[in-house]
Every structure is written in C-alpha cells, then in structure tokens.
Write a structure and sequence with these properties.
The complex is a heterodimer of chains A (186) and B (286). Chain A is built from ten helices and no strands. Chain A is mostly helical and 186 residues long. The longest helix of chain B is centred in the middle third of the chain and has 15 residues. Chain B contains nine helices and 13 strands. The chains are: A mainly alpha (186), B alpha/beta (286). At the A-B interface, helix 1 of A face helix 2, strand 5 and helix 3 of B.
Chain lengths: 186, 286
C-alpha cells in the first residue's frame, strides 16, 4: 500500500482542483491585511478562516473520476487520505501564518477548531453515499460556524452546541474521527 | 495476499436485493454465470446499473449474497482480492481533463496496485492501442471527443486482462465502426474470463453474447441464449396494413406496414421473429 500511495502522490496532486486552495489562501491574506487593527475582526477572521479552511479540506477529497475508480483495490479511504495529505499543508500554513499567529492564545486553539470542523465534515462525507456526502461534509463547517456567529445568543443546549467545535474541539474531533473510521470500514 | 489461482471467473448471486427508499431496484435476483460474454438487456430503470454496480463490488446489496471467483465481497480482504481481478466501466464517468489518456490509464494502474513502472507503461500502451487510441494517447483528454473519452475509460477497465469485466453500456457514444472494434475487443477479453455488459442494443447482444439476461422492474424475466430469446417470438409476429388492437404491441415499419407482436389472430401473415421481438415479448408472458 505504501508503494502504491507513494507512486500515486504526483498524479493525485494533478487531479486536485488547486484554484480554490489558492483562492482561499489569497482571501485569508487579503482579509488579514484589511482587518489588521480590529480586535473583533481578529475573532471573526479566526472563525471564518477555520470554517473556510475546513470546508476546503473536506471538498478536496472529491475526486471527479471517482466513478471510474470505484472498483480499484486501493480503498477510497486511502485515496481520500492521500488527497488530504497533499492539500492540507498549504491552506493550514497560510491560516496559521496570517491568522493564527495574531491570536492572543497563539495558533493552537485555531488548529484545534480547524481539526474538529474538518473531521466533522469528513465524518459526514464518509457516511453518506457517493459524492453527495462530500458536498454535505464540505458545507457542515461553514454552516456550523455561521450558526455560532449568528445564533450563539440562543439560550441553553442549542447555543452551547453551536459552539462545540470551538469550546470542545477535542471531543468533537475525537467523535468525528470515530465516525470517519467507522464510515471508512463500511 | 491470497495465492488462489483461478482459470476463469464464476459469478453466483442469490436473492440479491437493493432498494432506494420505497423503490426496489433489484428484487431477489438469482444468477449463476460462467465464462463468456453475458449481455444484460432491459428498459431504463429496470435495475441493470444497480445489478452491475453490485457485481462490481461498488454497491453493497441490502439482502442476498454474491460470490465472485468464489470470494465474498462483504469481507473486506476478499473484496480487495476481487478488485485485483476485476475491470469496471461505469455508465458515465468524468475523467481528468488535464491528463493524457496514457497518464490517466497509468494512474489507474497505480491504484490497481501495479507498482512496476515499466510494466505499467507497456500495459497502458497496450490497452490504449487495443481501444484504438494509439495516436491519441499523448493528447489532453479535454481535447478528445465523447466517444474517445469513453474508450479511455474502457482502456482503464481492461488493464491487466481482468478475469471479470463489468461494463455498463460500453457502446454509448461509439460510432458504428468503433462498436465493431469494441465487439472484437470484448470477444478477445471473454477468452480469459467473464464479461458482463449492459446494453439497450439487441444487435450488440446478438453479435456478441453467449448468454442474455433480460431485466424488468428489478427482476430477471429471461435468461438464455440470444437464439432462445428470439425463439420466444416464434409464431407471435405478424404484419398487416393497419393497427391491430389484439396485439400486445404494434408499430409502423419503414415501408408503411404495421408489425405486431402478441397472440396473432386467425389468418394473420406471420413474419420471421427477431431478437427485438423476443425481447419485447420477454416481459409479457407467453
């Protein structure tokens, strides 16, 4: 399997749509420049950056030739993991450099948020059939963070749940990772 | 890795069922197939694609069992082993437009666990030549016609001479000459194992298949040779100058006469049955 994945790195990198990655990276840099002085904006930047980066990472597992490759012996989960490993360094590095380093607590909490949101999206993608799952999975981080931004004044459990990816990112990440693993074995 | 060596593929299916919500796509299908080319005929929505996707280990059945080469696709390790010996052409597939056919087939070969680069290059070249793309293999896929792209996907399915080849409407988008080439290609592949293909084209079945299955509403309503399918209509086809309300089906032919199938009335002018007639009657009872 290692030999297969090693030889698949270069062609897999060519199958990935890099324009959205470049677009998100450029957008984050631009926003960080525009909003550099505003305290409130730093938090919005962090949340927005986490959501967009997580969404991008989940979307990156979409393979346009997935139907053709549906019956190859290299499992879908391994092919998706490879795509993720190829794509992730660029947007995550940009996020850490332009947003994470400016956060009062440093970049680690932001990385936790991104990880939790990405795993949650991947969990959805691995449990739903075909490419629809990827679309729903990629939408989840954006929807969840938007919910937290605009609906976290809700009282009680709903308000708490909307912030779980941020307040309990470790727990969310662990549960989502379990879902990804179970989904991959289906 | 299993060291089992089989000289030909066998497909055994028992009570196979797949539902999408309330709709039963494949309904308690039983099959036992040996080597050769098997054609699956049926109208749109009959369950052909769902059946083929299950046979290709791409879709898990809700009920029933499948045995491919004696292996059970429900067991992950056996599913991988099946896929090493399987070629699958889906009904429609996007390709990577910025790849050349050679690059795409080489990539599929990597994912089929062929790690010897020289072998891969030779094999990719061989299958692309076999599908008639020798002179296009270095051209970007986005510049190829739909029929050529279909042949690139077919070449990927043929990699490594699989023992079991599952092809969902392989002739879609091919012109008549390419269809003829496809027939020769599949006839050669069938020498090694089992080829299962779905089609709407009875001429294809007549020319190519040793056995034919007809599916309607998720069930297999006929299984036999193309000759046996045609024989279903023996003595049940007649022509007249106008429509016939007693016929199961009637249609006007190019010369203006009406062709009918069903139970002919007394004095009807019988004509020779074709495979199309047999196919149309296959779901209508006898």
């Amino acid at each position: 399997m290692i030999a297969v994945l090693t030889q698949a790195v270069r062609p897999t990198a060519r199958t990935i749509a890099w324009r959205p990655v470049a677009g998100v990276a450029a957008g984050l840099v631009l926003l960080s420049v525009l909003l550099v002085e505003e305290d409130r904006a730093q938090m919005v930047m962090a949340w927005l950056g986490a959501a967009v980066t997580a969404s991008l990472l989940v979307a990156a597992i979409r393979d346009r030739a997935s139907r053709l490759l549906a019956a190859v012996p290299t499992p879908l989960s391994a092919r998706r993991l490879l795509r993720l490993a190829i794509v992730a360094p660029v947007p995550v590095a940009v996020l850490v450099l332009v947003v994470g380093l400016r956060q009062p607590d440093g970049p680690l909490p932001l990385l936790g948020d991104v990880t939790a949101l990405t795993l949650a999206g991947l969990g959805v993608a691995s449990w739903m059939a075909d490419e629809r799952g990827v679309a729903w999975g990629a939408g989840l981080p954006l929807a969840w963070v938007a919910g937290a931004q605009f609906g976290n004044s809700s009282a009680g459990a709903v308000g708490d749940a909307l912030l779980w990816w941020h307040t309990d990112s470790l727990v969310v990440g662990a549960i989502a990772a379990g879902c990804v693993l179970l989904g991959a074995r289906r | 890795m299993s060291t089992t060596v089989l000289t030909y593929a066998r497909v055994a299916v028992s009570a196979l069922t797949k539902t999408y919500g309330a709709r039963v796509a494949v309904d308690e299908v039983d099959l036992s197939l040996g080597s050769g080319i098997i054609g699956v005929l049926g109208p749109n929505g009959a369950g052909k694609t769902t059946l083929l996707r299950m046979l290709a280990t791409v879709l898990a059945p809700d009920k029933g069992t499948i045995s491919l080469n004696g292996l059970d696709p429900r067991v992950p390790a056996e599913r991988v082993e099946i896929r090493r010996r399987l070629g699958f052409l889906p009904q429609s597939s996007e390709l990577y437009p910025n790849f050349t056919p050679l690059e795409l087939v080489d990539y599929v070969a990597v994912l089929k666990e062929h790690t010897d680069r020289d072998w891969r290059r030779r094999e990719a070249t061989r299958v692309l030549e076999a599908v008639g793309l020798a002179d296009r293999m270095h051209q970007k896929i986005r510049t190829l016609s739909g029929g050529m792209q279909q042949r690139v996907a077919l070449a990927a399915a043929l990699l490594g001479d699989p023992e079991l080849l599952v092809l969902d409407e392989p002739a879609t988008g091919l012109d008549p000459e390419q269809r003829l080439e496809l027939r020769s290609l599949l006839a050669r592949s069938a020498g090694r194992g089992t080829v299962i293909l779905s089609t709407h084209n009875t001429a294809e079945v007549a020319a190519l298949c040793q056995r034919v299955l007809v599916m309607r509403e998720g069930r297999i309503c006929f299984t036999g040779t193309p000759g046996e399918l045609r024989d279903l209509a023996d003595g049940r086809v007649w022509e007249s100058g106008g429509a016939d309300a007693t016929a199961l089906r009637s249609w006007m032919t190019a010369d203006g006469t009406f062709r009918h199938i069903g139970d002919p009335p007394a004095g009807a002018t019988h004509v020779a049955a074709t495979l199309d007639d047999g196919y149309l009657l296959s779901g209508a009872g006898r």
